[in-house]
C-alpha cells in the first residue's frame, strides 16, 4: 500500500506541492487568530461541586474578587492623609472602569483585615467583567492600564487570579523557546545530514504541521474551550515529530539513492519501509495522546486536541508532501554539502551494534543496574503532593507573585475562604444552626452568614461584616481558615465541612481553592483508569499488528513504565523538592494535578515512536531469516544512530521550554525531554537487547489463531527483495 502511495505521489508531485502550499497559506490565515481565543484557565472539572458553587457565586453573588491591587504607602502608613487620598482616588477610578465590578477597598469599607499587620499596605479588590475569554482580555488590558500608577504617595502592585498573567507570559516564553530551538535544531540537522537542502526539509514539514494544527485549534475554539498552553505542545511536538519523520524518510531515501535506484523507485521503496513505520508511529503517539480526552478538565483536553492533531498532520505531511519534495529534488537532496561534516545514514553504526552485542552477552549484568537506576529516579514519587496553580508558578520577581507572598505572610487574617452555597434559602433559625455547626468544625476561624457571625460554635457579633450573603433564593456561608489551601489539613477541613448535615430539602455546594483542588484530584483519579486502559489497549493492538507478537507489546509497556516512573520522580524531586530552583528560577510548590497525566500521555506516546522505529528494522531482519540475536544486533546498529539523533533533536524542542518563566511549563518541557533521552538511550540500547536475549525466539510468540489474524490484517514490512518484486 505504501509503495503504491509513493508511486502515485511522485507521479503527481507538483500538484501535491501546489495543494500543500494552498493548505499552508490557508492555515496561516486561519490559525493566526487562534491566540486571541485561547484561555488561561481549565484546571477544574466543570461538573464538580466546587465548580458549580463557583458558577452560583458568580451568577447570584457577583463572584469572588479575582483582581487585587496592593497599595503600598511610600511613607507613613495606609492611614496617612496623602495615602488615604490616593487610596480613595484609585478606588473611585477602578469603580468607574467598566471592565471591573464589585470594587471595594480598605478606604471604602471599615475592614481592617484588608491591611497588612504593620499597616504599610492595603488592598483594593475587584472582579473582572466577562466570561473566561472576555475576562482574560479585560484582565490583560487592566494590567497594562494600571501597571504603573503615577502617584507620589503610593505604589501599586497587581495580583489575584486574573492578575497572574500566565497567558501573556506563555506567549513571551514561546518566542524565546523557539528562538533557541529552531536555530539549534537547524545546526544539528546540518550536522546530521551534511547538506543544507536535506536539513531544511524536516523544518519545512514541522512548520506545515504546526500551522495546520493552529488552524485546527482555531476552528475548535468556536465550539469548545481550548487552553493557551496547548500552543506549547503544538510547537514542540510539531517541530520534533516533523524532524523525526523527515529524518527517517530522508535518510532512507538517500540510502536508496546510494544503491543506484532511480528517483521514483527510491521514493516508493522509502514509503514501503520508512513510510509504514511513520504511519504506525503516528497512530501509537496519537492513541496515547487521545487518552487525555477522557478527563473533564479542558486543560488536558486541549493538549489532546493539539497533540493528536499535530501528530497526524506531521505524519500526513511526511507521507504525502515529503515524497513529492523528494521526487522533485531527486539527487539534489544532497545539495549544499557542508565540507568536513559526516552525514547520518541508516547504515550500521558500530557503537550501537557493539553495545547490543555486549548487552546480550551478559543481559542480567547489563540490565539490573539500569533497572535499579530508573527505580531510584522514580523514588520521589512516594512523597508527591498535589496542588492547583497559583501566582507561585511565576518567578518571585513577578508582581503577582509578590502580591501573593504578601497576602500569605503579612496579613493578620489569611485570605483562604471556603464558600458554602445553600439552595434554596432556608429560614433564619435553620441557617443559624447550620452556620454554628460549621464554625464548630476544628480549624475554622469563623463562619459568617446572614444569621450572624460564629466562631467555635458561638456567636461573636449580631450582623456580618461582609457583603452579599443572600441573593435570588440562595444563601452563602463564608468560612474563614488560616490554613494553606493546598495542605492536607485544609483538604481534610473541606471534607469535614461537606460532611456536616445540610439543612433539610436543600442542596449545599462547597467551593473555594481547596475544594477545587480536591475535586480536581478526584476528576483526575476517577478517569485515570480509563485513560490508562485506552493507552494500553490501543498500544497493545497497534504493536501486535506491527510485530505479530504478544510479547513485544508487553515488553514495550514495561519499558515505558520504567521511563515514565523515572521521569516523574525526577520532576517531583526538582520542582516539588526545590532542587535547582535557583538555577531554573522557580518557586517549589506541590505538583500540579494535571502535569503527571500530561507527562504520562506525551512521554508514553513518544516512547512508542522510537519503539516503532527500532522494531521496524529488527522485524524486517528477522522476517528476512536472521536469528533474533542477529536481528537485534543489526537492527539496533542500523537505527541506533537515527533514533539517538532524532531523540536529541526532539528533546531540544522540549528542553527549550526550560527557559520558561512558568514553572509547570518548565516541568512539562524538561520532563518530556528527559523521558525522550532515557527511552532513546538506556531503554533502547540496554533493556531491549537484554530482554530479547533472555526471551530469544519466544520474543515473537503469539498463539496460532492470532498469527492467522495478523497474517490477514497486520501490515508486515516486506524484506527489500519483496519490495523489488512488487515494483517489477
Key phrases:
3 domains, 728 residues, 13 strands, 23 helices, single chain, Alpha-Beta Plaits, alpha+beta, elongated
Can you walk through the features of this model?
The chain is built from 23 helices and 13 strands. By secondary structure, it is of the alpha+beta class. The chain folds into three domains: 2-40 and 167-384 and 519-727, Multidrug efflux transporter AcrB transmembrane fold (Up-down Bundle); 67-162, Alpha-Beta Plaits; 404-517, 2-Layer Sandwich (Alpha-Beta Plaits). The strands form three sheets. Strands 6, 7, 8, 9, 10, 11 and 12 form a seven-stranded antiparallel sheet that branches. A four-stranded antiparallel sheet has the order 2-3-1-4, sandwiched between helices. Strand 8 and strand 9 (458-461) form a beta hairpin. The longest helix has 35 residues, at 513-547. Mean pLDDT is 84; it is low at 717-728.
Number of separate domains: 3
Question: What is the CATH topology of the largest domain?
Answer: Multidrug efflux transporter AcrB transmembrane fold
The level of helicity is 55-70%
Report the sheet-strand fraction: 5-15%
CATH architecture of the largest domain: Up-down Bundle
CATH structural class of the largest domain: Mainly Alpha
- CATH superfamily membership of the largest domain, which one? Multidrug efflux transporter AcrB transmembrane domain
Mean pLDDT: 84
Which segments are poorly predicted (pLDDT under 50) over 5 or more consecutive residues? Answer: 717-728
- Specify Rg, calculated over alpha carbons: 30 Å
Look at the helices and sheets and give the structural class.
alpha+beta
Q: How many DSSP H or I helices? A: 23
Shape: elongated
How would a crystallographer describe the biggest sheet? Answer: 7 strands, antiparallel
How many β-strand stretches? Answer: 13
Distance between the termini: 15 Å
